[in-house]
Design brief:
With 376 residues, this protein is of the alpha/beta class. Helix content is 44%, strand content 18%. The chain has 2 domains: 158 residues, 2-Layer Sandwich (Alpha-Beta Plaits); 209 residues, 3-Layer(aba) Sandwich (Rossmann fold). A hairpin with a 4-residue loop joins strand 6 and strand 7.
C-alpha cells in the first residue's frame, strides 16, 4: 500500500456534489480515502470560465501510478468530462489530477509524477498543505508547506462554506448521537474527538478535570467515593440537559466520550451497598427519561496498556490506580453490555492498535466499526 495525493476541481453543475461523487468513487475504485482537505472557491485559471471548487485528498492504494491515472480518467469520463479537441481549457464537471504517489518519480509521455506544475498552483498547494504539510515532495527536496510558503501564485482563493466527507466514516452519519466508552486510559476521549472532527459533529466531553473530589477520591476512596459520584451525577445531569437542547435546537449530530449510565458502573464497586442503593434511587429520579445513544462504541484494551497510557498522561491523582481497579471497571462495562441487549453496542478491540499516534490504526478502528455494524 502507498499513499497517493489527488487534486479535485469542478466548475459545472452542482460543484460540491461532483467533488463528493469523485471522492466516493476514488474510495471505491482506487483506494481508501484517508483525509479530505477543505473546499476552496477559485476563479478559472488559464481561461475565462465559471468559478471552480477545488480540494485535495490523500488515499491509500495498491495500484500502480498508471493504473491510478487510468482509473481517474475513467471517473472523469463517466462523470461527463469531455476532452476538448482544441487542446484548450474549458469548463468541466470534474477534474482529477494525480499529484504524488508516495515518493515515486516517474516521467513518461502520458504520466509525470509528481505533477509537473502543482508547485506553481496555489489552489492545489493550499488544500494539499492542509492534509500533508510535512510531506516531502520527490525531486523538490522541500515539503508541501515549504512550497506553499514560497509559491508566487497570486490567484485569490477563499474557503467554501461546506466540505467533503470521507466515505470510510460517512456511514456513521446515520447515528445522530454517538458515545465512546471504555475503561480509564483506553483512549475514548481521543477517539471521540477524532470522530466528531471527521463528522463535523458537536463534541461533548466529560468534565472530570473540573471535579474537586477526584484527586481526593484517589487518595482516600472510602471517604470521598460518595461525594465524588454525587458531584459527577450533578454535572452529568446538567450536561444531559445541554445535550438535549443541542439536539433539539440545531439537529446537529453529537459525539460524546461518556454515557451517563457509567455512573452506575463505577458506583457499584466504589460505594458501599447502602450507598449504592441510595445512589441508584437518586440517579433514576434525576434521570428518568435518559435516552440511549444511537451508537455506543465500547473500547477494549489490555490492562498493561491501560496502565501505560495512564502513566503517560501524567495526572498526579491517578498515580494510585492499579490493575485490580482497572479489571473491576472493565468487568463493569462487560456486565453493562450484557444487561443492555437492546442497545446498539459495538465493542472494538484496541489491544494491537495505537490510533492516537498512528493514523493508519485510526482508519483500522473505523473499518472494524463499519464491519461490525454491517453484520449486526
Amino acid at each position: 500500500m502507498q499513499k497517493i495525493y489527488i487534486a479535485l476541481g469542478s466548475n459545472m453543475g452542482d460543484r460540491l456534489a461532483n467533488l463528493q461523487e469523485a471522492v466516493n468513487r476514488i474510495h471505491n475504485e482506487i483506494g481508501q480515502v484517508l483525509q479530505c482537505s477543505s473546499v476552496y472557491e477559485v476563479p478559472a485559471v488559464g481561461f475565462s470560465g465559471a468559478i471552480f471548487l477545488n480540494a485535495c485528498l490523500v488515499a491509500e492504494s495498491d495500484k500502480t501510478p498508471k493504473a491510478i491515472l487510468k482509473a481517474l480518467q475513467a471517473i472523469e469520463n463517466e462523470m461527463g468530462r469531455k476532452q476538448a479537441a482544441d487542446g484548450l481549457y474549458h469548463d468541466r464537471p470534474i477534474d482529477l489530477d494525480l499529484i504524488m504517489v508516495e515518493d515515486e518519480v516517474l516521467h513518461s509521455d502520458d504520466l509525470m509524477v509528481p505533477h509537473p506544475r502543482f508547485q506553481d498552483r496555489l489552489f492545489v498547494l493550499q488544500p494539499l498543505c492542509e492534509i500533508a504539510p510535512e510531506k516531502r515532495v520527490p525531486n523538490q527536496n522541500q515539503t508541501v508547506a515549504q512550497l506553499t510558503k514560497i509559491c508566487d501564485d497570486t490567484t485569490k482563493i477563499s474557503t467554501f462554506s461546506e466540505g467533503l466527507q470521507r466515505p470510510a466514516i460517512h456511514f456513521l452519519r446515520q447515528f445522530n448521537r454517538i458515545c465512546v466508552e471504555g475503561t480509564i486510559g483506553c483512549g475514548k476521549t481521543s477517539l471521540a474527538k477524532r470522530i466528531a472532527e471527521d463528522l463535523q459533529a458537536k463534541l461533548f466531553l466529560e468534565r472530570f478535570a473540573e471535579n474537586p473530589f477526584l484527586p481526593k477520591f484517589y487518595d482516600d476512596a472510602d471517604r470521598y467515593a460518595f461525594p465524588l459520584e454525587m458531584s459527577f451525577l450533578a454535572d452529568r445531569f446538567k450536561q444531559q440537559r445541554e445535550l438535549s437542547e443541542q439536539l433539539n435546537l440545531f439537529g446537529q449530530g453529537v459525539v460524546s466520550d461518556y454515557e451517563v449510565h457509567k455512573s452506575l458502573i463505577f458506583t457499584q464497586f466504589t460505594l458501599s451497598s447502602d450507598e449504592f442503593a441510595l445512589y441508584r434511587t437518586i440517579f433514576y429520579n434525576m434521570m428518568p427519561d435518559v435516552q440511549k445513544p444511537d451508537l455506543y462504541i465500547l473500547l477494549k484494551q489490555t490492562t498493561p496498556r491501560l496502565l501505560e497510557n495512564i502513566k503517560k498522561r501524567g495526572r498526579s491523582y491517578e498515580r494510585t490506580i492499579d490493575a485490580e481497579y482497572l479489571d473491576k471497571v472493565r468487568q463493569g462495562y462487560q456486565d453493562f453490555k450484557r444487561s443492555h441487549p437492546d442497545w446498539n453496542i459495538v465493542e472494538i478491540d484496541l489491544s494491537e492498535l495505537d490510533f492516537v499516534t498512528n493514523d493508519r490504526d485510526y482508519h483500522e478502528v473505523i473499518n472494524r466499526l463499519r464491519i461490525a455494524l454491517s453484520t449486526n
